[in-house]
Amino acid sequence: MSLSVKLSHRLPDMELDVAFDAPPGVTVLFGRSGSGKTTIVNAVAGLLRPDAGRVAVGDWVLFDTERGRWLPPHRRRLGYIFQEGRLFPHLTVRQNLAYGGWFAPRGAHRENRDKVVEMLGIGHLLDRRPALLSGGEKQRVAIGRALLASPQLILADEPLAALDDARKAEILPYFERLRDEVSVPILYVTHSAAEVARLATSVVALQDGKAVRHGPAAEVLSDPAVAPAGVRAVGAVLQARVHAHHADGLTELEAGGDHLFLPRIPHRPGETVRIRIAAQEVILANRKPDGLSALNVLQGTVLGIRSGEGPGAIVSVQTRAGMILARITRRSSEALGLRQGMKCHAVIKTVAIAPEDIGGRVIDT
C-alpha cells in the first residue's frame, strides 16, 4: 500500500509546498529543525488543516481540498508514535495496548495481539503501569498500541529523540521488524543520518518547506547539500551479507565480492544487513597501501569529486561493494592526482563503523 502526499500551507516563517509518493515500508522525512517535517505529519494526522492538498493511503483518502473531503483525526485510522510514549498512566500496559483497538471500525484488519507482544518483547510488562517502565519499554508499548489500532498508516515523529544512546540501540531493531513484517506504511520523522540509513525504504529530504530530494537512503545521504548536518552527515549506505563470525571478535561481511570486517554484530551468517560508512572515516590511496593496521581496503574507481566553499571535498568511489564516499581535503585530492575514472583504494578502519550504523534486513525496492 503506497502513500501519496501533496500539501501547500503558509506559515508565519515558512511556506510549505511539498509533493511525494512513497512506496510501502518506512518513508523518512529528513531535514533540519524548522524544515517542515512535523508540519507535514500534523497535516497528515488532521491536527493541522492545510491551505490546499491531498493525502491518500492507497484508495483511502484522508483529505482532498479540491473535492471538499476532510476526515477528522479520529476517523483517519492512524497510529501515532510520539517522542515520548504518552501512555495513559492509570492503565496497565495490557490496557494501553487495547485502547487503540477500541476505536477501530468493525471489519478492519487487526494485528494479532500475541504476535505484536512477542515481536516487541513486552509480554513480561503487561500487568505493569507506565511509571514502572523504562523509556525504551514505554516506546515499545507505544509502538504496540499504534499497531493494534488497526491503522492504515503509522506516523512516528522523532520517536527516538528523547532516548539516550543505549535506549535508541534497544528500540531501532523493533522499528526494523516493523518495517519488514508489517504491511502498514510508516511516515517517520528524524534528523539522524544513522536512523535514515538503518530504517528508510524511501527518504524525502526537506529544506525550508520544500522537498529538495526524494529517493533511496543511499542516494540522499550521499548528497551534502541536503544532509541536515552538512558534510558531517554524508556517508555511504551498503547492503552486505554476514559471511562469518571470527574468534577474535570480528564479523566478516561480503558485499559484491568484497569483504569487510567490523566488530562482532548480532546477526547470523547468511543474513543481510545495511551499514552506513561515514565519509569522514574513509581514507583514499592512489595505489594499494601496504603496512596499514586497517583491515578494510576496497579497490574502486573515482566517479566524481565535489568541492565546497571550504578546504574539503567529497570523493565518490565505485567499488564492488557499492559506492563509497570519502571526505578529504582538496589539497589531498590534488596531491593524489584524483580525477574521474581513476583507479584508487578506499581504506576504512574496522572500528570506525559504529554499532548504530548497522541495521538488519531491508525491503528490496
Automatic annotation (TrEMBL):
Sorted UniProt keywords: ATP-binding, Cell inner membrane, Cell membrane, Membrane, Molybdenum, Nucleotide-binding, Translocase, Transport
Record-linked InterPro entries: AAA+_ATPase (IPR003593), ABC_transporter-like_ATP-bd (IPR003439), ABC_transporter-like_CS (IPR017871), Mo/tungstate-bd_C_term_dom (IPR008995), ModC_ABC_ATP-bd (IPR011868), Molybdenum_import_ModC (IPR050334), Mop_domain (IPR004606), P-loop_NTPase (IPR027417)
UniProt key word Transport: yes
Domain ABC transporter: 2-233
One function term, GO molecular function aspect: ATP binding
SMART domains (alphabetical): AAA
Domain of life assignment: Bacteria
Mop domain segment(s): 291-357
Cited PROSITE patterns: ABC_TRANSPORTER_1, ABC_TRANSPORTER_2, MOP
UniProt xrefs under Pfam families: ABC_tran (PF00005), TOBE (PF03459)
Protein name: Molybdenum ABC transporter ATP-binding protein
